[in-house]
Amino acid sequence: MSSIWQETLEKLQKDLNPQHFSTWIKPIRLVSIERDTVRIAVPNRFFLSWIRDNYADLIQETLSDIGAVSYQLQIEVARPDEEKQDEPAPGKAAPSIEIKRSGTAVNPGVYNLNRKYTFASFISGSSNQFAYAAARAVASNPATTYNPLFIYGGVGLGKTHLINAIGNAILEENPDMRVCYYTSEKFMNELINSLRYAKMDEFRKKFRSMDVLLIDDVQFIAGKERTQEEFFHTFNSLYESHKQIVVTSDKFPKEIPGLEERLRSRFEWGLIADIQAPDVETKQAILKMKAEQNGIDLPENVALFLANSVSSNIRELEGYLVRLGAYASLTSTPITLAMAREVLKNILVEKRRELSIEEIQKTVATHFGIKVSDLKSAKRLKALVLPRQVAMYLCRQLTSCSYPEIGEKFGGKDHSTIIHAIKKIESKMAEDMQLSATVASIRSSLES
Ligand SMILES: Nc1ncnc2c1ncn2[C@@H]1O[C@H](COP(=O)(O)OP(=O)(O)OP(=O)(O)O)[C@@H](O)[C@H]1O
After folding, report:
1. What is the domain class of 110-274 according to CATH?
2. Segment Domain IV, binds dsDNA: which positions (predicted)?
3. Residue 217: CB within 6 Å of ligand 1?
4. Which of 69, 236, 360, 397 has its CA 20 to 30 A from that of 168?
């Protein structure tokens, strides 16, 4: 059936402008074709309404022409764990080995991995360096170095991406390994189904036969007694057989309310790595890569504007990029700063008004009990150097000013001085929790 979809895609590719095709059609995934209903999944809600308004009729007509059936199109938003590969429903036997079009065998012991989340498509910066290095170490030597690996961080910061990248990298080196990616919610639902249909033996066998178990968003099992118990036994069984376990969460194990003590302590056995909010440079680099992947021509200053406008959530950042790409493509105009400001004005204005360098200088000076003129001076006193560097760092984080513009407002300093100061603060913050907390508190008072 998917050959109908394949042919539909080929036809649409011929009929549509290449950028429209790569922005809107390529990311669509076929879910199923059953009788006269074709279900497709799209990456997010914005995408869904765009497809509905602009492409649904065309897709439906093309499908119907090719399949010689009057198809109804159903469009839904893909959940990350639905981007699956050959996952058997609970209780059903795993599919027999399939042959990909390239001729390579598909490993039936791989569950739900999202193939597009790889290390190659993950940008590492100071905010995620530790988690990234730990993930790579685990991928190179599963079940030897860090077991379990516990990755935690805020919403949309790349946990799902990284945990899938581990699975994909392991499979590249060990194509026959059994690798399973599940959200903890899906684990729970499958458990409930298995209990209901008396399939617990199969459930246990499946999870305990994995070489690599990747559980995303484990915080959801907190407070779910039966799920925690089953997960605990799965964990023990895998751990004792020297199989790799990787878990992600939005919180540090100790901070997950309702998480059983025995699970919490096991999560602390291995390595705990955090992902912090990305800095402006990392956000820019991610934007550039995503723009390239989607065939969107994104000028440097617009990338900087977006990176400065969105607090930290990369998913949100991607949403804005898609919106700009769509606007540019549909109006056949290039993306410019003015256009980006206009297209995103309602969303971004609500999020944050642009802070001025002067406001930042004033707040930092007050915090440290010094004068604004001291921040702008060249005095090398220790009591002035740190606040000055903090102020420069925050100016870069919270405004869209360039290094030379910031330098200008700090008594005409060279851009290299600003870059140096920012690097210095970033590395100090990585080691000094107290300084990190100070910067975070100044930042939140500026943003409130
Ligand atoms: N460092 C990065 N490099 C490239 N892409 C990234 C990076 N961090 C996040 N992303 C992208 O941002 C989007 C959101 O990331 P992801 O779903 O992994 O976040 P998450 O931390 O799992 O969020 P949630 O808490 O909602 O589960 C994805 O499309 C992912 O590819």
Report:
1. alpha beta
2. 329-448
3. yes
4. 236
Distance 162 CA to ligand 1 centre (A): 8
Q: In this predicted model, what pLDDT tens digit does every residue of 81-99 receive, in sequence order?
A: 544 443 333 333 333 333 3
| Residue ranges per structural domain of the chain | 1-77, 110-274, 292-353, 357-447
Q: Side chain identity at 138, as an amino acid letter?
A: V
Ligand 1 pocket check for 155: Cβ under 6 Å: yes
Q: Tell me how far CA of residue 150 lies from CA of 112, 132, 153, 253, in angstroms.
A: 19, 12, 10, 9
Burial 90-102 (b: 16+ CB within 10 A, else e): beeeeeeeeeeee
* CA pair distance 404, 5, nearest whole angstrom: 52
Superfamily of 1-77 according to CATH: DnaA, N-terminal domain (3.30.300.180)
**Residue 283 beta carbon below 6 angstroms from any ligand 1 atom:** no
The answer on whether 125 is annotated among ligand-binding residues is no
Are the beta carbons of 377 and 413 closer than 8 angstroms?
no
Q: What is the pTM of this model?
A: 0.63
Instruction: For the chain, give the mean pLDDT.
Output: 86
CA of 318 to the centre of ligand 1 (A): 9
Closest residue (by CA) to atom 16 of ligand 1?
158
Q: Which CATH class is domain 292-353?
A: mainly alpha
